Known about the structure:
- 33% of the residues lie in helices and 19% in strands.
- By secondary structure, the chain is an alpha/beta fold.
- The chain has one domain (3-213): Aldolase class I (TIM Barrel, Alpha-Beta Barrel).
- The protein has an eight-stranded parallel β-sheet.
Amino acid sequence: MVKIAPSILSADFSQLGDEIKAAEEAGADLIHVDIMDGHFVPNLTIGPPVVKSIKKVTSLPLDVHLMIESPDRYIEAFAGAGADIITIHTEASTHLHRNVHYIKDNGVKAAVSLNPATSLSVLDFILSEVDMVLLMSVNPGFGGQEFIPLTLDKIRMLKDVIREKDYNVHIEVDGGININNAGDVIKAGADILVMGSAFFHADNYAEVIKAIKKHTR
């Protein structure tokens, strides 16, 4: 069954604790936390203290997505704040193998992310080392963007490699996912869907999750 990871980037930050609790009660599987530094992406969001506060209000795993330059400088801080999964971008990490293992050494699951135009070939010598690959289906930095259709081909290609190699690696997809296109994303091979505005701007969170989980591979 596909998992749903609501992205708090689209939540009402004036009621963030309540929003997260509502997502959990609706049946969400993870909470996706976007960390942006204003350099790697043109936006600035939150840091470890907010992640630590979020950890106190939910029992769901925290899926922390570092859209930041030199992520190795902050891995330990976010692990200590309560991250269960830490994702770093291949484009922002000079020593990707070292950083993936640094994440694991901090007792956290390690994931790597690829921007829409980044080739899957960057995973050739790291895929066996990670727990998850996050494929961006929009250019990172802002919520509310439209899903890039070519991502479906990318998901299929990655799924084929994972199956061929018999790796235990999940595929997460982030950007522009909604009720209308989720079925195609799941069919292509995604295991985890990150949903932002399509989730937190909906009238009924539980109905969104129910509609998405009707799609099975």
